[in-house]
Write a structure and sequence with these properties.
- The protein is α/β, with parallel strands linked by helices and about 475 residues long.
- It is about 35% helix and about 20% strand.
- The chain is built from 14 helices and 18 strands.
- Strand 17 and strand 18 form a beta hairpin.
- Helix 1 packs across helix 10, helix 2 packs parallel to helix 8 and helix 2 crosses helix 11.
- The longest helix has 21 residues.
- The N and C termini lie close together (about 5 Å).
Length: about 475
């Protein structure tokens, strides 16, 4: 995950009326929430509850934790509390890319956990398979499609990026994965854009979903197993309580034997965690449904997920009703990690994304965008999840998914439960699980460093060269390269 840096092609003067007209009537609201099947809200906690396990957070991570806890031990009493509504944060407003990778790609995994990469790739594929099985088992209607994903090289990228993509291809082949190298003609046969010059088709290890419907389906599954869910119930503090933990909320309390914290980018209840994560905002658009003629212009018959290979990358996919979701590129860190609802709207980013969309698909000129929105992501310096415990092992957390949480949060939930239950597993014995990322510096150095990184990443995308600042970050294990 990178942070936005403007370049010459994105100068506001280049946002002509055509690009702005395409977003003029868009609803600033997540497309996924525009659904008649959104479930009713659960009640707010207004009393003191007691349970074996309290899960804090009603996104994917918390929901998987609650479900797996009950699957492992149906007699375990589980309470889940969510500050707003289940799936209302990143879990319900992302692009719906479900990747098997646990390390944010093979290159990042090779850089940080080279000796464990084959095992981590195996565990990631097992995790994706378990998600698919759970979707079937609980009859979750979430438009699940195991289409795979293509990483794309285009004329907008430095030539050296194609070599890096070939390196990924070689690495994945060596790991025995189903991948295909696509030259320019083969890539444009998959999806027709004049900008494409090559691609890496990663088969079988990625799927697409409707993210909000997945969250709602997991909520229903958890409740069917006996999990008590309270919404509009924010955890304000946690403290030791005899042999357990006391979780305080505005109108009630939960006395729990153990606590699993699955709060994403929200302010951590354990202060130590805040040094390791930075909240960044990501933005996306959704078009109106494409006509048959427009679909014929671009092909895309395989419906794969697509992603650029640059630092400042776009991700895009077809929805069930043949709209194109187009997001990424601008990922913004605000001063002191500021988070609020107003920051979910950023018209200058939507204008930039609109321009990039029509640069990629000029044959779709005249297409309109119907929805625009943003959301906050929990990122860390290693670009993938990490874990920890507190209060003498009574509390466990997983955080730092960096936009890779649609699938990896289930794996994170299993590891949290292993930690709380004192269970040894192949996962818990890895350095991937045992280690933590390097912390971010305090403000103002955090903000200054991120701005320097924004500039440097933009320079690398244009030239293919990492400057002194990026090389210095690499030496300290803070390589912003994903």
């Amino acid at each position: 995950m990178t942070l936005d840096a403007d370049d010459d092609r994105d100068n506001e003067t280049e946002f002509d009326e055509f690009h702005l007209d395409a977003i003029a009537d868009a609803d600033p609201y997540p497309y996924w929430y525009d659904d008649a099947d959104e479930p009713d809200s659960n009640p707010t906690l207004v009393r003191t509850e007691s349970c074996d396990l309290c899960v804090i957070g009603g996104g994917y991570n918390g929901l998987w934790t609650a479900i797996i806890a009950k699957e492992r031990d149906p007699s375990r009493d589980v309470v889940l509390i969510e500050a707003h509504e289940v799936g209302s944060a990143a879990s319900g407003r992302n692009g719906g890319f479900m990747e098997s990778s646990l390390t944010h790609g093979v290159a990042n995994g090779q850089e940080r956990f080279p000796n464990e990469l084959p095992l981590l790739e195996e565990l990631g594929l097992n995790n994706l398979n378990e998600i698919e099985a759970a979707i079937k088992r609980y009859n979750i209607d979430c438009d699940y499609e195991r289409t795979g994903v293509i990483d794309i090289a285009s004329t907008a990228h430095a030539p050296s990026y194609v070599d890096e993509l070939r390196d990924d291809y070689t690495q994945l082949r060596a790991l025995g994965q189903k991948v295909e190298w696509l030259d320019q003609a083969a890539m444009q046969a998959q999806v027709n854009s004049p900008t494409y010059i090559g691609g890496l088709f990663r088969k079988d290890r990625a799927a697409l979903v409707d993210p909000a419907r997945l969250a709602w389906g997991l909520k229903s599954a958890a409740m069917s197993l006996g999990v008590r869910i309270y919404e509009d119930t924010k955890a304000t503090s946690i403290e030791k309580d005899g042999v357990g933990v006391l979780v305080t909320t505005p109108l009630g309390r939960v006395r729990a034997g153990k606590v699993a914290m699955a709060v994403g980018a929200s302010k951590p209840l354990l202060k130590r965690v805040s040094h390791f994560i930075a909240p960044v905002y990501d933005y996306c658009l959704v078009t109106e449904p494409l006509t048959n003629a427009q679909l014929a212009e671009i092909g895309w018959n395989g419906r794969q997920g697509l992603s650029d290979i640059s630092n400042q990358f776009h991700y895009y996919r077809l929805t069930a009703d043949n709209r194109i979701l187009w997001g990424g590129y601008d990922v913004i860190y605000y001063w002191r990690g500021k988070m609020n609802v107003e920051l979910e709207s950023r018209p200058e980013t939507w204008a930039k994304l609109s321009k990039h969309f029509f640069d990629t698909f000029p044959q779709l000129e005249g297409l309109k965008f119907t929805h625009t929105w943003g959301g906050v992501i929990d990122t860390c310096s290693r670009f993938c999840v990490f874990w920890g415990r507190g209060m003498q092992g009574r509390v466990a957390y997983s955080v730092g998914y960096t936009g890779l949480g649609v699938a990896a949060t289930r794996f994170g939930a299993e590891v949290m439960l292993d930690m709380l239950d004192g269970k040894r597993s192949r996962a818990t014995q890895t350095e991937f699980v045992k280690s933590k990322p390097l912390p971010f510096p305090p403000e103002p150095f955090r903000f200054i460093g991120i701005q320097a990184t924004r500039y440097s990443l933009n320079h690398e995308d244009k030239t293919g060269k990492r400057n002194l600042w990026l090389r210095s970050l690499d030496r300290f294990g803070l390589g912003f390269d994903s």
